[in-house]
Queue: 2 jobs
Job 1
Amino acid sequence: MPESKSKEPEEGKLQSLLKRVPGGALIFAVIPLAAISYFAWFHYGAEHLDQALYSLDANKLRITEQPDWIRQDLAKSVYESHQLNRVSLLDPQSSSAIAQAFDSSPWIKSTTRVTKEQGGTVQVDLVYRRPVAMVFVEYEDNQSGAPKKATGFYLIDEETIVLPGWNYTEEDYKNYLVIASNPPLDVSTVGDGKEFGSPAVSVAANLCSLLVEHRERYKLATVRVDKDFSTPGTSPWLLTVFTSDGRRIIWGRPPGNELHGEPEVSEKLTRIRQWLEQDASMSTAQNELDLRGFASSTVSSTR
């Protein structure tokens, strides 16, 4: 008979050998089980142990001191919403994952650095978005049955990014410049963390960013945006600033879009300061300032 048929297969030889050895059958059964256990540990057990020992601890997460206008615990909020407890600090990509989690918050303009420190502490350096105004809107309220007009406010930064929150009180919006638009604004696509998406709001926010540091001192309250097509080929927006004590400042075209002969921003700010710092009796009598020309301030007794 051919030699190939007289030889047992190698596996058969191994089995025959193990049967002659005390406990050999048990060893033969244990070897595959051990191999399976090893690979299971390699792929799953080590990962869970790694997470248990080296995962990011919420109590060891440090961020740049958040400003007063953010009313939530931002570190806790981001940690929980992005499940940062599953991030292993041994992972080379962990710093990137932490940065991406914070970058997704509407309150964060940028994450500049993530630093791992001894003891599992992680320091995250952040640049926060700064509110410059609240946008006044009117909308249809259908929640109570019959549609009705309702009003509300969106908090935005200088880039018109909508910041979290909606149910602001009167005390809240007294702390910010308010943007009002004519015609009314479309808010159908407005959402937290997105640009407001309105050219009118963009030009008003630009002005608000210039006025915000003077808001409280000069009682600046509202920036109104009107469409004005009286001068073809220029920006269609006309900006007017109102103070909380009833005075009106006609700013003119948006900063950077001034008409020929219209003062630039620095000149307008100087004229506002001089006008608002007049003595009390004169300020009461003169309640309108027109900044669109170099001539002496246009004063009117009507609003």
Job 2
Amino acid sequence: MTSLIRLSSPATKESWEIPILFESADLLAINKPPRLLLSPDRLDARRPSLTQLLRAELTRGPAWVRERGLTYLANVHRLDFETSGVLLLAKSRPVLIAMADQFGSEAPVQTYLALAHGNGAQPVFDVDIRIAPHATKPGVFRADPRTGKQCSTHFEVLEQFRDCALLRCWPKPGRPHQIRIHLQCRHQPVVGDALYGGQPLLLSHLKPGYRLKPGRTEHPLIARAALHAEKLEFGPPGAAAPVTITAPWPHDLVVAVKYLRRLSTPGGTPPAAEPAETPEET
């Protein structure tokens, strides 16, 4: 059976090959690519979204749809536009409702990876701050101790670099932008998260003597908010045992961490200048 979902948007000339991570009679989990909307953008209907693209494929009936007899697919939970990783889809409306009830009760365990600015953080820490939609900025959220909804995030530092850290994060219950806001509140915003104060990760900031070739433009090592939904643990409806689904690291996160390990170890001596490299140039 096909293990990839191929989607395309002729209007924007974009295409995606999306791996299937898990499948049962009722559910299908995919490794959502970064920078793909989950739902249509109400301010720009032309931007492709996963739900629209899947709906079109169910109507068109390519091989991966026909061999499964699919007539319905809907996301059980949400991931931000820039976030990659495990996304669970229901194959029927009753299963969607049953799984939505699970997520509402905080039963599933969602594990994320994040690159965050700053150093010197405790190896383990928790943030318990209420959040709410921003009063004047649609799609933006903020800390709001008075009227916000309760949420907490547990963080563990996996690797500490000179100016940023690789964190593993467990949000409860997983509200929109929760991890991003909780790290912003600690003055450690997610790398590349322009909405909440994150700065791009540039090779020129890591490598002494970095030289950009004339006429070239430097691009960030990771051109988005550096957040990845690494793992999802939940109980499928009617199943005797829980299920754990893991999504491999996306290529941009692998590249970013590779350069940080090589050039930005804490307390170490910066490496000698090397000839400019070009993977981030155009």
